[in-house]
Amino acid sequence: MATFLYKLGRLAFRRRHFVALIWVALLTLAGVGAASAPAAGNTSFSIPGTEAQKAFDLLEQRFPGMSADGATARVVFKAPKGEKMTDAVNKATVEKTVKELRSGSEVASVADPYTGHAVSGNGTIAYASVKYEVSGMELEDSSKDALKDAAQDAREAGLTVEIGGDALSATPETGSSEIIGIAVAAVVLVITFGSLLAAGFPLLTALIGVGIGVSAITALASALDLGSTTSTLASMIGLAVGIDYALFIVSRYRAELAEGREREEAAGRAVGTAGSAVVFAGLTVVIALVGLSVVNIPMLTKMGVAAAGTVAVAVLIALTMIPALLGYAGRRIKPAGQKSRLLGGGRTPKKPGRPNMGTRWASFVVRRPVAVLLLGVLGLGAAAIPAASLELGLPDDGSQPASTTQRRAYDLLSEGFGPGFNGPLMIVVDAKDSADPKAAFSEVGDEIKGLKDVVTVTPATPNKAGDTATITVVPDSKPSSATTEDLVHAIRDKGADIARKTDSDVLVTGSTAMNIDVSQKLNDALLPYLALVVGLAFLLLIVVFRSVLVPLKAALGFLLSVMAALGAVVAVFQWGWLSGLMNVEETGPVMSMMPIFMVGVVFGLAMDYEVFLVTRMREAYVHGEKPSQAVVTGFRHGARVVTAAAVIMIAVFSGFIGSSESMVKMIGFGLAIAVFFDAFLVRMAIVPAVLALLGKRAWWLPKWLDRALPNVDVEGEGLRAHADPEEERELVRA
Asked: Is residue 320 scored above 90 in pLDDT?
């Protein structure tokens, strides 16, 4: 591996014009494809194997004109204080609004509040349901404008009017904090390298990689049914790892220059050594992201595969474009320890004598491994305590900012009709095999009325064939509550009894039931996914480190950091700690896909630091140093770079906390805090403490396994054969 990458690095350095041309051409091609691609439609959210999805598919088949996947809107009206919606003037305003809404070209139906029993008990609130023929993302701007204009006309007539539903859904905005994250990354790079040019390379290549990845996703969004969150995730992860991978190689290049090697040779060795760590670190990230497909949720699979593709591009750019750019820079990239003239360079580097901070810290850990290990484990354990109270769910309009019309519509409906009205359950009764379908429909409704937490059960609405009917059930509690979840399970239990009596099938669906099924599916898939991803990465790390205990320690350390990160997410987004600082207006259940998503992404990112830091230790050990000294050597060469990489990644992820979409905000915070825990507590404290305690046993590998494993030579031992003998002698004399 190291020899191949060494040759690749030297080739890219020499043929830099060709390499740069290829990447510019790929970026241009992806950009043109994105610009000319048709607009992406609304992402289909199918959950194969769940009851809610089965019911949805049945509705598509038995109610073909229902437009089950069409956009919906609820136009909610509230009368002025002291008036009612049934007053003649207010009623006339609403009827005029309904007439305006029906005139839209994409409108399938509009339900009049006064004929559809959609006026609250006290008469102060009413709503009109609007159904469209196309999905929310496919809805024309003219239809959205017509919806807003109709609501504004009613407001001018004196009513309070808000609009809920997905008809006004918009692409989430990340805010200016994303730019701040990139700016922080730039500052850290300048401090790390002491050179504006060297600092600019990782940023430039990362932006090119993200540009190619996101443009490709945009170009394929319509054909592959990719949503806006897919590109956001790809840019988030691609930017972070792209900067880190380039940082690793540029840093190693400067270290090779400091040892006196020629620039082309230094580029080859940087790619052969640090590039090997980049390849295996990237592979762990790709395994973790692609492994999300084991959950069997198409949306999550697409997000993972798209992000994995962006990571693969980041690895390829780091291995080829970075040495090409180093060739262009020539002598303007200084050896390690030297700064550019603009930043105070030109002075002789400090004489070696006082060890750097990484060396001092590693020496302290090696002297006090037990104390450091205990403090690190106890600290992460304390942070993980809130995770025991983890509640899972999916966001609805109730989690939107209070400034949005969707949230205000949600609150008005809760005020007028009860909190459960925002999450009605749809019961689908399949009586195709029943001798008396009407009796079956009636029995289902009667059984549900007798359950707790039920406010309203509408009469069954059969299809034209009369063999299938829908029943709407309004719970007494809000959609995301445990009480509503219990009601869904209670209805399904009753449905099983009814099925035996009437030869009919009772299914529960709707957005609330779908959310419950998604959460359950994700919970069920978490352990198999964890076993698959950690198992594959464990095998990969055995090949890299040629050790059994080092990969085991890496996996256990990851579990500590991810549990601590989940605890922090619960504390902020569920308990409300520091919610004002994070701009979290509404606390509630943690997003149901958050745990499994964090497991996948954080594991891949955590292995970046593990591979880069520990390969330096392994390299020193293979070259004859004692185990404790190898730990110190690894920190002397790698701690500064890993620290910079972690700060950059935290800054980039934190930039997404400013997103207007709660899912992106939560992912940004979760990944940022997870990287902090993993980089600074696990990799920089627990890892050296454990290695110091294990000594030579850390690098133990059964002889039979050593013979069976391929030699990937991450340490670059094979590069000695490619070095100029005279140059090597000079380096030895120095």
From this structure: yes
At which residue do the structure tokens 């809404």 appear? 101
User: Which range scores top for mean pLDDT: 102-116, 315-329, 574-588?
Assistant: 315-329
CA nearest to 237, candidates 699, 534, 583, 670? 670
Residues with Cβ < 8 Å from 548, sequence gap 6 or more?
542, 700, 701, 702, 705
| Cα separation, 350 vs 356, whole angstroms | 11
Exposure b/e, 156-190, CB count within 10 A at least 16 = b: eeebbbbbbbbbbbeebebbebbeebbebbbebbb
Whether the CB-CB separation of 328 and 264 falls below 8 Å is answered with no
Using the CB atoms, write b or e for 561-600: b if 16+ within 10 Å.
bbbbbbbbbbbbbbeebebeebebeeebbbbbbbbbbbbb
- Helix H or strand E segment including 77: strand 72-78
Q: What does the angle CA 24 – CA 30 – CA 32 come to, to the nearest 5 degrees? A: 100
What distance in Å separates the CA atoms of residue 668 and residue 232, rounded to the nearest whole number?
10
3 φ, ψ to 5°? -65, -45
In the numeric block, the tokens 């380096």 are attached to: 731
Interatomic CA distance for residues 489 and 476, integer angstroms: 15
160 secondary structure, DSSP code: E
The angle subtended at Cα 378 by Cα 375 and Cα 384, nearest 5°, is: 140
Q: What amino acid occupies position 491?
A: I
Candidates 397, 301, 375, 388; CA nearest to 76 is 397
286's enclosing H/E stretch is helix 263-290
Which segments of 655-724 does DSSP mark as H helices, in order? 662-676, 687-694, 703-708
Angle (CA) 257 258 264, round 5°: 10
For 556-625, strand residue ranges (E) read 590-591
Taking residues 418-428, report their average pLDDT: 88
- Tell me the pLDDT tens digit for each residue of 409-418: 999 999 998 8
**Mean pLDDT value across residues 117-138:** 84
